[in-house]
Amino acid sequence: MTNVADLPQATRLVTPYFDILITSPTGASHLDKGLPCQDASMAGQYFYRGQSYTVAAVADGHGSEKYTQSHVGAFLALQAFQSAVSSLMRVVIETKAESGDWKSYIRNEITLHNFTKSLHSRWIEAVTEHANALLNHSSNDEPSVTPYGTTLAFCFAIDDLIVHGCLGDSAIFQVSDSQATELFPLKPEDSLGLGTDSLSDPRSSKKFRYEIQDKSSVGLLEPTFKNGLWVLTTDGITDSLKSPEKTLSSILEAIKTMGMEKVSQILPSKLSQWSDQGVGDDMACIVIYQKYPEHKTQLRGQTSDTQ
Prior knowledge:
Elements: E1 10-14, E2 18-23, H1 28-33, E3 39-48, E4 51-60, H2 70-97, H3 102-111, H4 114-135, E5 152-158, E6 161-167, E7 171-175, E8 180-182, H5 188-191, E9 209-214, H6 215-218, E10 229-233, H7 235-240, H8 244-258, H9 260-277, E11 285-290, H10 294-299
Antiparallel strand pairs: 1-2, 2-11, 3-4, 4-5, 5-6, 6-9, 7-8, 7-10, 10-11
Helix pairs in contact: 2-3, 2-4, 8-9
């Protein structure tokens, strides 16, 4: 008899502007071999001084034999990301409270790689602590972080600003009624057949691809993206599907016709099916449905009954 805990699960996080589905089914090949899921995923909404911010991330531990702790590395990557965002948001929200230029501060932290340097250093500290505990390490030499190698894709949002970042072959898609687009796809020359970028690389903080979207200036709250999606995925999904863009567009349509609750019940099993029919890899996925509150319409110039 199948244990309910063994079935693929999904969690929903509902905020005033986002309806988020988080799931991470174990891949078919890992189930066959009795191996752990090497993907990890997380999303959350947090508050500091009454100001909310929303975060989401997926990580994919590398699969080759030398990455024996990559499932731990993926999990610790999410912890490092959350810790780095919390540190950033403390300064951002305090700057915002003093009417400072908080958006420029975020842009500088991203473009100068300060944020990803902070993320990477926190990850190194966490995996080093884990490796020392695992090996009862007594040498003065630092243990190798290579076995913990992982990719990472993340986003965080505060007010009208959304930051997306990606290291390695995990992916972020933006999905609207008209199309699904990968925000920064890997180019063939990015890997040269030598594998994907990894947090275990000392230079990884400068290898993140990123995009900063200011909804107040680029129109993401216009009808062209009204009630659209961002989807964060590991490569199990992009490698298993013939047309990830078409499939993600169908998920948006399903959300609009059936609702997110129904989709949250169906999607984990569908991901497991796609893994079985595809490359057999783990299938971490976060679906971020951007809602379009009515008061936003009023704020954009339409009349209101309230005078």
